[in-house]
Design goal:
This protein is an alpha+beta fold. It is built from 8 helices and 5 strands, in the order ααββααβαββααα.
Length: 225
């Protein structure tokens, strides 16, 4: 137990030095796989419109089985991101909770699974999913250690997600500003009018404002109608 706690502490320290959501998720899944004796691992993220997306999978089977859960609306990671903190299945072949998904998982060699919800600022942001090829593979899993790991992982992923969002917003603001400058110089208009022109092109073409701005910056001219 003390050794496992030290591993968690090491992972937390390493996560604090990683920059970017993708490498942070990869560190979480790889570490969880080793720490909890899983064959494969992945993270389910809840996106802005409530869609579920698998990220950082250690194998394509994770994406395949997660996607099947999302399509069917049933499965351990679906339960973990909606209503439970930890979901464990020790024998999917005989588990009645997911009558459609369970047999499909068994057919590709998965017999055990554990899913733990990920929370940040009091709300669920996703789930950590661990897959096993043996029955009872997670029977001895320390729930307290799993929750501790999940809590640290949640904090790290939420921070990385925020930084990534802020960086993307800054990049967008920068390219829009550059496009506004080109329009102002080309047509002798003020910033308000330049932004209005950008917005009109965006609406008329049904393209995002950033996409229009990038075209203007790249070509140094307004897009063709």
């Amino acid at each position: 137990m003390a050794e496992h706690n030290e591993i968690v502490s090491t992972v937390v320290r390493e996560l604090s030095s990683i920059r970017g959501l993708e490498p942070s998720i990869e560190k979480v899944t790889q570490s969880a796989r080793l720490l909890f004796d899983a064959d494969q691992a992945g993270v389910t993220l809840i996106r802005s419109r409530g869609e579920l997306e698998t990220v950082g999978p250690t194998h394509e089977i994770v994406t395949e089985l997660d996607s099947l859960q999302y399509a069917l609306g049933q499965g351990p990671c679906v339960d973990a991101v909606t209503e439970q903190h930890v979901v464990i299945a020790n024998d999917l072949d005989s588990d009645p909770r997911w009558p459609e998904w369970g047999p499909r998982a068994c057919s590709v060699g998965i017999q055990s699974i554990v899913a733990a919800d990920l929370q940040a600022d009091g709300r669920r942001i996703g789930a950590l999913n661990l897959y096993g090829s043996r029955t009872n593979q997670f029977k001895g899993t320390d729930a307290a250690l799993l929750l501790s790991f999940s809590a640290h992982a949640s904090a790290a992923l939420a921070a990385a997600r925020t930084i990534e969002s802020l960086s993307a917003a800054l990049d967008t603001r920068t390219v829009i500003g550059q496009a506004e400058g080109i329009i102002m110089e080309r047509f002798g208009v003020d910033p308000v009018t330049a932004f209005a022109i950008l917005k009109r092109y965006s609406q008329d073409s049904n393209k995002r404002l950033r996409e229009i701005a990038e075209q203007i910056v790249e070509r140094r001219e307004l897009p063709s109608s």
